[in-house]
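SAMPLE LOG
Freezer: B-3
Tube label: C17
Construct: single chain, 190 aa
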Amino acid sequence: MSKRDSILQATIDVVAMHGISDSPTTEIAKEAGAAQLTIFRLFGTKKELFQQTYEEVEQRLQNQCLSKINQAQGPEQKLLTLLKEGIKYYRKYPNELAFFQQYTHTLEGLLQRPDFRYEEGKNISGFSLVMILDEGKQQGIFKNLPMTALVGLTAAPVAMFLRLEQIRKKEHPKSETDLLIQACSQAVKA
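STRUCTURE (predicted):
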């Protein structure tokens, strides 16, 4: 693993353990086995470190889900597939979910979210959830709501469901997971 990758992973792990505001670069450097100066040399600032870590987490999820999503037909099936694959992914990598939740609840993280960027007219290619919701919205399959609302109806319940699993250290049964996925899909249907 490269030094950069070690620092990104350490950032995910430290933030997952301590929260975003209690994750100093000294702790991240220690976890990564790197000098704090290396963090600043590679990433510039702590803010940029968190932003690049967020982008890495997003990319990892996209890479995991993309082939399955591309096999699905139509926005509704793509959404169901993405939710199912996202749950599998975040169950396997719970610290990435914890980092994601921590970061996107900061002002900087909120502004990086693809649903916010979409509403500002910025390029969101490469962000499957927003692209799927946009496709369904354009076809009249999904509700004509702001993208932040559509993402809130689909991703937020899944994130909370998985976070509670992590806290309780107990996975929900498949029947409940399937019901959640269906409920999130139904929530955005027109």
